[in-house]
Amino acid sequence: MSFSDNVRQSIRSTINDHDKRFACLYAMLLYSRTLTKDEICLKSESEIFDSVFPILMKTIFGAAVPLKIERKPRKDGGMLHIYRITGREAVTRIRSTFHIHELRRIDMRNLPTNSIGMFLGGVFLTCGSMTDPNKDYHLEFAVPTQELCDDLCDILLSVGVHPNTTKRRYAYSAYLKVSEEIGDLLTFMGAQKCTLELIDIKIDKEVKNNVNRLNNCDMANIDKVISAAEKQREDIEVIIRHDGMRKLSDELHELAELRMENLHLSLQDLGEMLEKPIGRSGVNHRFRKLAAIAAQYREEDANGGS
Predict the structure, then answer these.
(1) Which among 89, 131, 248, 266 is least buried, having the fewest CB atoms inside 10 angstroms?
(2) Taking the alpha carbons of 219, 225, 228, 231 in that order, is the dihedral positive or negative?
């Protein structure tokens, strides 16, 4: 089951009183793809939608509004569910019940305060989807008209989330990309279990990202140590070739020998191995002296040994 279906399942389980049933059915009909004076048509591939819409129609309208249902198998093995309400009398009854005019707009008279979340849940059942949060944070409503998209955004803003909008080929889209706001909306629509799942996924992703950052940081530090050690080795080899080791002070000689024997160690580790241990900065200072001596030998070589 997809994450979108998990959300739909959670929403379905909260349609448990008359106001919520009324608000949910209102959302489904208002946001249907086709709504004219003579026909209302909804299409869905969701089995959960199929288990909700016909029951709500029967609960609210009984036998007064006949519902025609057609199911078409799809090539991917799924099923397309098509619901039609035809005839001006039946459509007029629905439009009158929910105050739906020719220019479809949300009518707040249909939404007592405690049923706004269920209304948004009904919109999600009809035209909502959510990407698997393991891949991306994206919740979207594909809305049939600009006016309904604007009205939906107003309600979303009123409950504390801030949708973005765009025009798709066949619909207007209102969508959320911020995980915290998606979680807030899921909770408001009655999908609290999905909110908890979203939080768990986000925590897991953050832990993995932190581990990766630490690993990358460790690798960068290792590369830096190796690169520095290689440069120090080259400097010491120059000094050895010029028989310069015997001319070094005891502290520089000791460090040079330690480095040649321990190319993998950090400056801190080398400092702790000295007869008289010193800190990282002290070790670095001594290596700068060795580098300066090696630079003098290289300059002599470049000048022909003069």
Answers:
(1) 89
(2) negative
CATH topology of domain 3-198: Endonuclease I-creI (3.10.28)
| 196-228 confidence digits (pLDDT tens) | 999 999 888 888 877 777 777 767 777 787 888
Render pLDDT for 71-121 as a digit per residue (tens, 0 to 9): 999 888 889 999 999 999 999 999 999 999 989 999 998 987 789 999 999
Q: Is residue 64 a contact partner of residue 107, using CB atoms and an 8 Å limit?
A: no
DSSP character for 110?
G
Residue 17 token pair: 């009183």
Condensed to tens digits (0 to 9), the pLDDT of residues 99-109 reads: 999 899 999 98
Amino acid, res. 143: V
> If you count DSSP H runs as helices and E runs as strands, how many of each does the chain have, helices first?
11, 8
Q: How confident is the model at residue 305 (pLDDT cuts 50, 70, 90)?
A: low
* Residue extent(s) of CATH 3.10.28.10 domains in the chain: 3-198
Question: What is the spatial order of strands in the sheet that 34-35 belongs to?
Answer: 34-35, 39-44, 79-86, 68-73
> How does strand 172-176 pair with strand 139-143?
antiparallel
Mean pLDDT (the chain, rounded): 91
CA distance 306 to 295: 14
